Each structure stands twice: as C-alpha cells, then as structure tokens.
Amino acid sequence: MLNSSVLVLNRSYLPIHVTTVRRAFSLIYQGTALAVNGEYETFDFHAWRTLAARTDESVGTPGGAICLPRVIVLLTYDRVPRRHVRYSRLNIFARDKFTCQYCGEKPHRSQLNLDHVIPRSLGGRTTWENVVCSCVDCNRQKGGRTPAQARLRLIRRPVRPRWTPVIHHAVQSVRYDEWRPFLHIVDERTERYRKAAGE
C-alpha cells in the first residue's frame, strides 16, 4: 500500500508527477504538501489523520488507521513540467508503451530491450529518434542489422516526445477516481502533442 501511486499537483493544481504513498505522507507531514480529497478540500497532516479511514484504502499506525492520500498539492511549487524530456531507458519504454516496436507484443519488462534502429556499428546514434523498445526475440533477430536487412518493420517511427512519457504512462495505467478531475488537462495536452507529432 505504501508503494502505490499518488498524483502530485503543483500549486496551480496541474499534474506534474506521480509518487508513492510513502513519499506523499512524508511531504504532507513536513508541511510542503496538502492532501486533496474528492471534493477538492485540502488537509494538512493533522486534519488528514482525523478523517475516518476506509479499511481498503488505509494503513495502520500506532495511533490508528489513516487514509491513503491519492492526490496531493505542493504548497510552493509553481512551475509546470518542463518540455525538455530527459532521455532515459524508462522514458523510452514509457514512450513506446512498454511494447515491442517490431512485433507489437507487450512482454514482461524483464524481456524488453532498447534497440538502435540504425545499429551503432553502422553509425547509428543513441537518440530519441534512433532507439526503440524491443522484445528480446526481435532484438536477437535484428542483431546488428537495419530493420530492412533483418526483414523487420517498425510499428511507429521513433520521435522525441513533447510530453513526459513516465507521467503519461502512469496516469494512463493507474487511474484512481480521485485523479480524474485533474487528468483531463494531461489528456488534452497529450492529445495535442500526439496530433502535432503525427501519431
């Protein structure tokens, strides 16, 4: 339960991150964030602790059960997510929806690799536009060749995302009812970016 997801909002109530319940409790306790309920009411740690805890969405403490926060708002953070998205293995996986870009399968994460579309041995670079998520089997089949040489075809041309893939993936895959009022902003923004990127 302490590792389940919590939506983090900036001071303007824009979604900027997904964190764990454990981290959310820490931020609320430190006074840098407030818990937000389904009626948009905010609570500091003491007020949140006094709410009646639901058995399926609470954790036990020496002082009694406490509700799990599903949304928190940061008190001093005004900035919106940066448009520059950091290149990382996890962001590539999230951009490609944890799906092999050659066969379309969605294996367990342990069976996913990063593949250079144009192999490094042929001058390919490690960039958003040349690296895709691939399953182990397709990666082996492709080897150090181009997709055409290996008789493989890319499902989608890789591009640099204009949104933060990890946040987008998290809000797409785990949607708690308490998140819904805040996600339409992310959904609308993502849809605009997808259209602009020609997906």
Would you write up a description of this structure?
This protein is an alpha+beta fold. It folds into 2 domains: 102 residues, no CATH class; 54 residues, Orthogonal Bundle (DNA Binding (I), subunit A). It is 28% helix and 20% strand. It has 6 helices and 9 strands. It has a 5-stranded mixed sheet with strand order 2-1-7-3-4, sandwiched between helices. Helix 3 crosses helix 5. The longest helix has 18 residues.
Strand order of the largest sheet: 2-1-7-3-4
User: First CA to last CA: what distance?
Assistant: 36 Å
What is the count of helical runs?
A: 6
Strand content: 15-25%
Biggest sheet: strands, sense, closure? 5 strands, mixed
User: What class do helices, strands and sheet pairing give?
Assistant: alpha+beta
What's a concise summary of this model?
Helices cover 28% and strands 20% of the residues.
